Amino acid sequence: MVTSRGGSSSSSSFGISSSCCKIFPVKPSSPSSFTILRLFVLLIVFIFIFNFYSRSILEDEENLNLRLPDFVSQQQLSSEKLWETPFSDGLHPCVHPTSRYQAIQGGDNNHYITVRSNGGLNQMRTGIADMVAVSRMMNATLVIPELDKRSFWQDKSVFSDIFDEDHFIDSLKGDVRIIKKLPTELVSVPRARKHFTSWGGLGYYEEMTKLWMDYQVIHVAKSDSRLANNDLPIDIQRLRCRALYHALRFYPSIETLGKLIERLRSHGGGGRYISLHLRYEKDMLAFSGCTYGLSDAESQELSLLRENTNHWKVKKINSTEQRIAGLCPLTPKEVGIFLKALGYPPSTAVYIAAGEIYGGKTHLSDLTSRFPNLLFKEMIASEEELKIYANHASQTAALDYMISLESDVFIPTHSGNMARAVEGHRRFLGHRKTITPHRKGLVEIFDKLESGQLKEGLSLQHRVQHLHQIRQGGPRKRESAPDGIKGRARYKAEESFYQNPYPECICALLQK
């Protein structure tokens, strides 16, 4: 009950005191006046509530109208994110020499280096780039290297079958003198036959120049990993990049066939494709000792191959330990689960950049069931176009390299020589998207799937995507050896220069 100053009383459901009523020019002289006042207040409250909820409803309708196209755009954005290149913050290739670098003078050089390059195509390519730099440091003429003919694939190709020899010589003429053959008068002279130390620095090769006191020709028996990854002069590092990315151009016929990329794009939605370096090949499985998912007969076949290959030093390997440590290539089934968890739809065009897959269609079936749009060289090139590459694994590997380099997304299933070389080249060209599987982490996830502790769905997608947030090929400086590794072992543990040539060959906009 509220008592007025005039002695009359009235109940108020709003609990309004008489003092508040002074703002109204109405004298509460009768009960009817209080009724009018209450109705007036109720009307104000009603109008306020009506306006508030009307505005809320209109805003909800507007938001709903915005959300529908926004939801669609979010889906499109999510789809685009699967393909977009990582942000590179204005970084660009920089391989020009510094002002301190001096071009070589014309005329003959009476010191010569001959080289036998070892390994597969990309191991030889990076080794040759190293030998260009070594020849520069030792002030020697480089003879066009001999390619490996004794590797697993037994390829008889010579340098000029794979690379544009004249372009190689001409493009490096200011850096190193290169000739096609050793002068006739030097063919039979004694040579210093050297296994240059792995990951040698400038000081090591300055020491090696003492050999010129007794020899005119040094023969290098192996070319891979002859130079350190770090702590070399910037001009030597940039010379390595010029040699690998500019001088070692593939032979014109390989370059031409590499244009099959346009045909390849016609197979995928939106003209985009993933290049999958599916390292599920006989030599890799035998070398690594990885037999997970294989039959006993297949496992035994791979063990025999490893035991009978002389230059593979490790003969006894525990396959389970290898896999848990993340040292095995992903299986086709695991790749299918991985791609789906990343968010790629089943219609995605996936090019298989690899040799013959071990077990053929039998082992590929788990991948094709999830991603039926798998593409191989034979599906985008005619039999006639591929005929000249028959029995030349290094030349077909060159095709895979070019197609992988130009792909929208590159995914290697094992960190071998090609995977590292393609990743580094894609970084050099603008940090093109390269997704490097976290194999050790994925094995734990796959094992939980296998045991039923985890099922495919949002939880799996979240785990896989979270694990690979920073494994998309974005800019970062080359990694040093992990803590605790000492001595020469740390050189081997460093990230390869050719896997990530940043910062020496990749600069900010204001740098040269």
Query: Helix count, per DSSP?
Result: 20
Distance between the termini: 87 Å
Main β-sheet, spatial strand arrangement: 6-5-4-8-7
Helix content, binned percent: 40-55%
Structural class: alpha/beta
- Tell me the Rg in angstroms: 35 Å
- Total number of β-strand segments? 13
> Could you describe the largest sheet, including whether it forms a barrel?
5 strands, parallel
Mean pLDDT: 87
What is the approximate shape?
Answer: globular
Oligomer: single chain
Q: Low-confidence segments, ≥5 residues, pLDDT <50?
A: 1-29, 56-74
Report the portion of residues in β strands.
5-15%
Give an overview of the whole structure:
There is one protein chain. The model is unreliable at 1-29 and 56-74 (pLDDT under 50). 43% of the residues lie in helices and 8% in strands. The protein is an alpha/beta fold. Helix 5 links the parallel strand 7 (192-194) and strand 8. The chain contains 20 helices and 13 strands. Helix 9 crosses helix 10 and helix 12 (332-342) packs parallel to helix 13 (361-368).
